[in-house]
Amino acid sequence: MFSPTTKVISTEKLESEVTFSDIIEKVPNIEVFEIKDCTLKVNGETWIKDLMKFKNVKNFRKLCILLDTIEFDIELLKEFILTKCVHNVLIEISYQPSIPKTVFHSFVDKIGKIFFEKQYTSFRHEPHIKIYDGRSSSRYFILDIEKSAPTKATRKRKLE
Description:
This protein has helices at residues 20-26, 47-54, 74-84, 101-111, 145-148, 152-159, and strands at 8-11, 32-35, 60-67, 85-95, 116-118, 128-132, 138-142.
């Protein structure tokens, strides 16, 4: 079903014991991974670690994932985008509606400390993230790669 040459996976009502981690491990060259419902088992604490561990090349273009736990490592997500993704990657994270709005917004505010929050316009030229609360609201973030990765000249000025 999956092979190292698989580039796109889109799951919908997957009836299997296979997990997100199992799939990522078997398809290290994946470029697009869309999870359209909650039947695929995704460990909310390790999904980003699994992507970092098994993804081999910098070609990841799109991830749509549904989570039932709110917290994940935001710094690791940034590292994943910088090291494993194309320049205009799209990451959509949706949460179960059962997560309280206050908890959702509190965590999303933490994301805003690493990524820049923007009103939705056009994200064609920069990595971006869409966070959906599972009810009716979404928040959008971008990662300004130039600001995230200082140049040698910038680093030298900081040292002086």
